[in-house]
Amino acid sequence: MKETIYNYNDLLQMLDSLLREPSQFWDSFYADRSKKIPFFVNSPDENLVSYFESGILKQGKVLELGCGPGRNAIYLAEQGCNVDAVDLSVESLNWARERANEKKVSINFIYQNIFDLEIEKRTYDFVYDSGCFHQIAPHRRMSYITLVNNSLKQNGYFAITCFEQGGEYGGANITDWEVYRQRSLHGGLGYTVEKLREIFKDFKEIEIRKMVEYEQPNHKFGVSGFLTALLQKC
């Protein structure tokens, strides 16, 4: 393996090797579908539902980053959206396809690392991320923002659901520098409303709030310890 840094991309790949969970980890994570993982339910995020119910979001072309077992992608397709859903786990995508077939909806599932995506610029009306962002290492945030910006049409919307700092299910309260000292994301980084505003300061804020908790089973998914944000490309 080449281990010489010639350019910025080489640097990113070196840092990835220190911190990124391999696809085999996520395949193992999704292999046992009986595990008591909150988001293994087959219901969409409550905040995502609220965006459509309020009329902010309508039918359009959507990119979901880190779709997991497909619950949000399925909801988006049911709203009449043309959905591209990306994940790096074969196991999660197999599960997502099974669910989509059961619901009789059409979704373009893509097996890919989000940073290796090749997409036409300004293609999507909406980009959604539920649970991917807090697994992104600090050195990849600039790449992540660039990906979202390049994907969205002018005035398109972007939304995330991520760990709140010190939340029940994750949300490590450590500095970016400490991530590299410890060589670990500790299961996922935690964020505050203020930090999300700073990171996504070039977007127009529509809403940033705590996720609303819903007792399961329910037609909407919501748990404590998560933040949700809806933003717009200016």
TrEMBL record:
Name of the featured protein: Methyltransferase family protein
Keywords, alphabetical: Methyltransferase, Transferase
GO BP field: methylation
SUPFAM superfamilies listed in its UniProt record: S-adenosyl-L-methionine-dependent methyltransferases
GO molecular function: methyltransferase activity
Organism: Ureibacillus acetophenoni
Keyword flag Hydrolase: no
Domain Methyltransferase: residue ranges: 62-156
Top-level taxon in the UniProt lineage: Bacteria
UniProt-listed InterPro entries: CFA/CMAS, Methyltransf_25, SAM-dependent_MTases_sf
